[in-house]
Amino acid sequence: MPRLLPLLLLLLCACGGGAERPEPLRVHAAASLRDLFAELGSEFEARHGVPLRLTTGGSNLIANQVLAGAPADVLVSASALEVERLVEAGLVPASGVRELFGNALVVVVPEGAPGVETSVEVLLQGARRLSLAHPRAVPAGRYARAWLVELGLWDELEQRTLAGMDVRAALAAVASGGADVGVVYRTDAMASEGVRVVHEVPAAGVRYAGGVLADSERPELARQFLDLCSGADAEGRAILEAHGFLLLGE
Amino acid sequence: MDELLTPLLTSLSVALAATALVAVPGVALGWLLARRRFPGHALVDGLVQLPLVIPAVAVGYCLLWLLGETGLALAPGALFTRKAAVLAAAVMALPLVARMARLAFEGVDPRLERMARSLGLSPSATLLRVTLPLARRGLAGALVLGFARALGEFGATVVVAGLVPGETETLALAIFEDIQLGDERAALRLVLAAALLSFAAVALAGRLASGSQHDRGARP
Asked: Fewer Cβ neighbours under 10 Å: the N or C end of chain B?
């Protein structure tokens, strides 16, 4: 045991040393925000000296995690519904909910697929397997389903739908060639090399929303992160636009 | 009741097809490992056991890479169809079938095989008329356990077959979907169904296994 003592002391010092680094801001975010928040996170750390600890997934999943007690300071989801569920549960004050930015939906096919000169309706009707985020659970899937219902194609396509856990999973299914058509966010299609955009859905009404958790120990810092996300200043706006997200109020 | 019945039937037919697919190769591998010493024996043994110990989702990744456009593109059209669900379940069930089949063959006294040979039976006739009949209960148990394993498969299936109701969505995937949707009641019904089905399969395998020991005890 005496020989182990220096080792134990060393371990203690090593653990204590970690405390000097600032605790990261815990952000639960929609899967489509992975790349955007990596960059906004570096910008945020440069300004405030606090890094982000990102947890991403389908908006429904990350909201469920917070409802189940996962520690978080901020939740950013791809629709207001998930943040409202946290408001109902008393986890986010109603005054703390904010609309942040928008996105567009696109129809994608695998990169190597032959180009076909048809309307998007014909392309969708001929699909062997249509990849979406889950059309009832995940916002990207709900938006896509609403658009397909509007086109009058949903009843016909539902049987051939592959439901992804989140929009990135839906995108990956198209990139692997397992699904021949997919409906995903424009920003995800931009970040992938395995797919080609064949149609942009006009005015899909995609709105991201954010909220600061009521039990966050650093609500001010969390609000500053949401400010950055909402494009309150030029640097934030430039990053949002570079990733293809839509600024609100334009 | 469709929400319960559809995934239940999908599970049953995927697991049955997977068991049928691995029955011959699994039993053959088990026999090879039990009765033959050849160069690379340990390597084959290790490879066969691999899916038993590495995460199922890693097996899913390998299958995705083999089949999909992002990898070897052997059959991108099979991804996210019933075929992919059967393949994933079969790959995950194979090591268990081979392992149990090996034990069944090792339980057959080699002296009986030698006796049959000395009485003039050819090697293949010895296999068909002595070894296989003596190992039959253990082999049946191996197939039932393989079926149970295929029934419970999730990790590899979710990667290559995904959530397509009525086609790839087995009990395990439907439970996962209901949890994602936050529908805990629906999830509970499916969990109970899966538990009952798996319990029945394992109990059957247990009966077959104890029967095979009985056979061995009764041998002169």
From this structure: C
* B76: chain A residues, CB-CB within 8 Å: 176-178
Q: Do A161 and B164 touch (CB under 8 A)?
A: yes
Lowest mean pLDDT among A6-10, A64-68, B175-179: A6-10
Cβ-Cβ contacts under 8 Å, A68 against chain B: none
Q: Three-state DSSP class for B80?
A: coil
pLDDT in tens, A130-142: 999 999 999 999 9
Tell me the C-alpha distance between B205 and B141, whole Å: 5
Token pair recorded at residue A170 = 């839906």
Whole-angstrom distance between the N-terminal and C-terminal Cα of chain A?
69
Inter-chain residue contact A163 with B164, CB threshold 8 Å: yes
Best residue of B2, B62, B180 to probe chain A, by most A CBs closer than 10 Å: B180
Tell me, yes or no, if the pTM score tops 0.90. Answer: no
- CB distance B167 to B10 below 8 Å: yes
CB A179 within 8 A of CB A113: no
The residue behind tokens 């086109």 is: A151
Question: ipTM above 0.95?
Answer: no
The residues near A2 (Cβ < 8 Å, ≥ 6 apart) are none
State the nearest Cα–Cα gap between B68 and chain A, in angstroms.
5
Q: Which residue of A has its CA nearest to B177?
A: A165
**What is the token pair recorded at A226?**
């949401």
Asked if A194 reaches chain B (Cβ–Cβ under 8 Å), the answer is yes
Closest residue of A to B174, CA-based? Answer: A163
- Integer Cα distance of B11 and B167 in angstroms: 10
Query: Using alpha carbons only, what angle is made at residue A213 by residues A212 and A214, rounded to the nearest 5 degrees?
Result: 115
